[in-house]
Design brief:
With 339 residues, the protein is of the alpha+beta class. It folds into two domains: 82 residues; 231 residues, BirA Bifunctional Protein, domain 2. Helix content is 39%, strand content 20%. It has eleven helices and ten strands. It has a seven-stranded mixed beta sheet, sandwiched between helices. Strand 7 and strand 8 form a beta hairpin. Helix 1 packs parallel to helix 4. The structure holds 3,4-dihydroxyphenylalanine (DAH). 3,4-dihydroxyphenylalanine (DAH) binds next to strand 9 and strand 10.
Length: 339
């Protein structure tokens, strides 16, 4: 009898299957009504009294082993079949991809540089930490000019400052190239201003420069009109008001007809119908000379505009601070913008 238990135990241990039917068959033949183990329970009465206790114990162990074997074979089978069955539902609509967005200043800068590169302007850049010569002296700023004042300029050392405008790049381009020169220089500039909705201590400018033989004020006007129409639409008009910059003579301020009211008058243009967008002028002969370009042979024009200013007009954003606060509620509104 004990031998039967041993033999059946070995059979149970050996049994392997990965078919549900075979496992069920195995269960029936060992634990079913007429199963080998069940029958052994029936033979219990034939066991001598002094061995009954031990026999009962071993028989129970055998029954449990057998049940455990069946359970473990079944659970192995169900994990295997789960992994081979695909859970993917190919009919579910795709998840929308979260695309990043380009910064509005980048978008406007690229639009501006694109407009000028279409008419042959190259793109040039210069350092944000600039020396007095490139930022002021070569550009014909008199020594006592208020723009050199500690109020406006972030000085790093005596003669070194954060550039206050991208006009410094003009100087670098002219020092290193002979005309014809047609270039635009986008970049960040710094001024020592209290931060408010209307002013910031850093912002972006795009400088333009055209130097060649016989370049006239009329050439400049036509180029700026082309730019304005490309940027604001074909109905846009410009007007030039006399102004002063140390590095240009004559100098002008460029206004565009108000992009909001088309010149009729609204609170954005303060009911004037015009919005100021840039400064410009004919490059002062002193500047050409400072950069080793002969003013008797060459002439040229320059202009400079604020990227934030243009962005404000295009996007109707009133508060300058939004451009540098990295608030994604603001930035994500530009996510579908391309140019
Ligand atoms: N640099 C000037 C500024 O920051 C802008 C400017 C005016 C640039 C006239 C020019 C120019 O090249 O001709 O306000």
């Amino acid at each position: 009898m004990f031998e039967d238990i041993d033999n059946i135990n070995q059979e149970v241990e050996k049994f392997q299957s990965n078919s549900l039917e075979e496992i069920e068959q195995f269960r029936i033949s060992y634990l079913g009504k007429k199963g080998k183990i069940t029958l052994l329970f029936g033979a219990f009465k034939e066991v001598p009294v002094d061995q009954k206790k031990e026999f009962g114990k071993q028989l129970n162990i055998l029954k449990n082993n057998c049940q455990e074997k069946i359970n473990s074979l079944k659970s192995k089978l169900s994990t295997n079949s789960n992994s081979s069955k695909s859970n993917t539902d190919y009919t579910i609509p795709g998840q929308p991809m979260n695309f990043g967005s380009r910064h509005p200043i980048t978008l406007i800068r690229d639009r501006i540089t694109n407009i000028f590169s279409q008419i042959g302007f190259s793109i040039s850049e210069g350092p944000e930490i600039e020396d007095d010569w490139h930022n002021f002296t070569a550009l014909n700023f008199p020594k006592e000019h208020p723009a050199r004042d500690m109020q406006d300029t972030f000085f790093i050392q005596d003669e070194i400052a954060l550039r206050t405008h991208t006009s410094s790049v003009q100087v670098r381009v002219m020092e290193n190239n002979q005309p014809p020169i047609r270039t635009i220089s986008p970049g960040r500039v710094y001024r020592n201003e209290a931060i408010s909705a209307r002013a910031h201590c850093f912002f972006h400018q795009i400088e333009g420069l055209y130097i060649d033989k016989d370049v006239s004020f009329a050439d400049m006007k036509k180029t700026l009109l082309y730019f304005t129409k490309s940027m604001f639409g074909n109905e846009a008009k410009i007007r030039l008001r006399p102004s002063y910059f140390p590095f240009t003579e004559p100098s002008a301020e460029v206004d565009v007809s108000c992009t909001i009211c088309n010149g009729k008058g609204c609170n954005v243009c303060k009911y004037s119908g015009w919005l100021e967008i840039m400064g410009c002028g004919m490059v002062d002969p002193n500047v050409l000379e400072n950069c080793n370009i002969d003013p008797d042979v060459y002439s040229g024009y320059a202009f400079g505009m604020g990227v934030e200013r243009i962005a404000q007009l295009i996007y109707q954003v009133n508060d300058l601070r939004l451009y540098s606060e990295n608030d994604w509620r603001f930035l994500k509104q530009f996510s579908s913008e391309t140019f």
